[in-house]
Design brief:
This protein is an all-alpha fold. 71% of the residues lie in helices and 0% in strands. Helix 10 (212-234) runs parallel beside helix 12, helix 10 (212-234) packs parallel to helix 14 and helix 12 packs antiparallel against helix 15 (373-388). The longest helix is centred in the middle third of the chain and has 32 residues, at 307-338.
């Protein structure tokens, strides 16, 4: 029976890969986040939360386990373990054992109540980190990033609907058992996803497209969104765990509709619609949404005094918080898809930063005498800095391959000229160029760039077409050109088609052959080779 189900799922994955992987990942993610919400706000866990309360809010110990797992994964990333070695079964064991220890802390006779509760929360935090990491690794395999984004958005919205009801409606005695079953459901979805991991899906894994500086910028954005998300979460109705939870403020048809529409709009306009834009600039509109959430919080008392407005504020603020989780997940999935680093490196950095801010934020939120609004203003400023930071520096590739106006530029380090220069994605440089560069004392890159610029001018390329052409002539891929020139994929495609038309070619290799021939001709003219002897070396 199970084998027939696996075969059917595998067949569907081969036919509709993105839809199947996205649906299974969304189901697994929904189970994990509902499980975490039940731990924090389920009425069946109130007694355990009251045991922990004298030592701090129960979410504090969950975050300690969560942050410790993130920090450990940063260390493990240096050992370059294979993705298949991620411990799915260990994750399940931690989640189930942690839930049982925390939920039954006062009923078990082996350990003191507070010891069992704290150990359970720690295991749950570590299990939550590992579970979300496993899901992100699966979502990174889809053909289009937009499919992964939609899957995570659906999981977050369904969690809002079902989680808010289950934590209040289910009988208290049944909630602990149900919370123990949810990780098992997640593990089953993960098993189905593993069966979907066929050669047909592997073929669509993205290749490495980010240069070193792009990876550091992506890490910067991961840390920035984690800090902002920690602040948003700390001021929402889910910020503290334990007694006193009376349900989500969105627990109505109107509230669900507002959240669904707003989250869909934010997702489409800032993430899905911009998914083909340059790798890092595409996330700037999403950061502006987070900034809007902070503005809402800071100004709520002054402009949202009416009860109807206050309720709308609650709905929108919850939507911004959900969107913050979505943005964080999207950045992690993007990092896994576009770099060759271990996947847990990026989530480790993101979630460790989140925990290091969320833990002290809990103490501030518990102190009624402390006004956190000045910190929220600082957070708005950090959001804006994070949104513009990737645009603040000019990529080194532009300086090296496009700028030939000055000699001895700092961005052009001296290099010894070999007899033959190759690039993984480009043809062999004409030997005449190497000889000419060596005889004139000019670096090979600068002499080759001068030739390419002269060729672009002779074919009537525009300024932007010249920029694209000079990177194409180096054999650079289209995603790489989008990255260093801050252009969308569609814009680069248009420029490439114009370049092909002006050169009279129809494919990249034809263009490279034509450029190599023209470079050889230009160099032959420079060194005075007679026209009858000019041949490509």
């Amino acid at each position: 029976m199970l084998e027939s189900i696996f075969r059917r799922v595998r067949h569907l994955a081969e036919q509709h890969g993105d839809a199947v992987v996205g649906a299974l990942s969304a189901a697994a993610m929904m189970m994990v986040v509902i499980w975490a919400d039940m731990l924090g706000h389920g009425l069946g866990f109130e007694q355990s939360a009251s045991v922990v309360a004298p030592m701090g809010n129960s979410r504090l110990f969950f975050l300690i386990g969560f942050t410790a797992a993130g920090a450990a994964s940063i260390v493990l990333a240096k050992f370059r373990f294979a993705e298949g070695s991620l411990p799915a079964k260990v994750t399940l064991a931690m989640a189930v054992a942690g839930t049982a220890l925390y939920g039954l802390a006062c009923a078990q006779p082996l350990l003191p109540c507070f010891t069992a509760a704290i150990c359970g929360l720690f295991l749950c935090g570590a299990g939550y980190y590992a579970a979300t990491l496993l899901i992100y690794c699966q979502l990174a395999k889809v053909r289009r990033l937009s499919s992964a984004v939609i899957a995570v958005a659906m999981a977050l919205f369904l969690k809002t609907v079902f989680g808010s009801q289950l934590t209040v409606v289910l009988p208290q005695g049944f909630q602990i058992a149900f919370a123990c079953v949810l990780p098992v459901g997640f593990f089953c979805c993960l098993g189905l996803l593993g069966r979907c991991d066929s050669a047909a899906l592997d073929a669509y894994r993205s290749r490495r497209t980010l240069a070193a500086h792009g990876v550091y910028d992506l890490l910067f954005l991961l840390v920035a969104v984690s800090l902002m998300l920690a602040a948003l979460r700390g001021t929402s109705h889910l910020g503290l765990w334990g007694a006193g939870y009376s349900g989500s403020p969105v627990s109505s048809v109107t509230g669900y509709a507002v959240v669904a529409l707003a989250l869909s709009a934010f997702t489409y306009l800032t993430l899905v619609r911009n998914s083909n834009n340059q790798m890092l600039v595409r996330f700037q509109p999403a950061f502006l949404v987070l900034a809007a959430g902070f503005v809402l919080y800071v100004l709520q008392d002054s402009f949202l005094g009416a009860p109807e407005s206050a309720q709308l504020f609650e709905w929108l603020y919850l939507t911004v918080e959900l969107f913050g989780h979505l943005l964080s997940g999207t950045l992690i999935i993007t990092a896994i898809r576009t770099t060759d680093s271990a996947p847990w490196r990026f989530q480790g950095v993101s979630d460790t930063a989140f925990g290091l801010v969320a833990i002290p934020w809990i103490f501030l939120a518990q102190n009624p005498a402390f006004d956190i609004r000045p910190l929220m203003v600082v957070a708005i400023f950090l959001v804006m800095v994070a949104a513009i930071r990737p645009m603040s520096t000019r990529p080194l590739e532009i300086e090296r391959f496009l700028d030939v106006s000055g000699e001895g530029s700092a961005s052009m380090p001296a290099r010894s000229e070999p007899s033959e220069v190759t690039d993984p994605d480009m043809s062999v440089v004409a030997p005449s160029v190497v000889k000419g560069a060596a005889s004139s004392g000019v670096t090979l890159e600068r002499r080759l760039a001068a030739c390419h610029r002269e060729i672009a001018r002779s074919h009537g390329l525009s300024v932007r077409e010249t920029d694209v052409f000079m990177l194409l002539a180096q054999g650079r891929s289209r995603p790489y050109i989008c990255e260093v020139l801050y252009l969308s994929d569609g814009t680069v495609k248009t420029h490439i088609s114009h370049i092909y038309r002006k050169f009279g070619v129809h494919a990249r290799q034809e263009l490279l052959d034509a450029v190599q021939e023209e470079v050889a001709r230009i160099e032959a003219v420079r060194i005075g080779v007679p026209a009858s002897c000019r041949r490509e070396s």
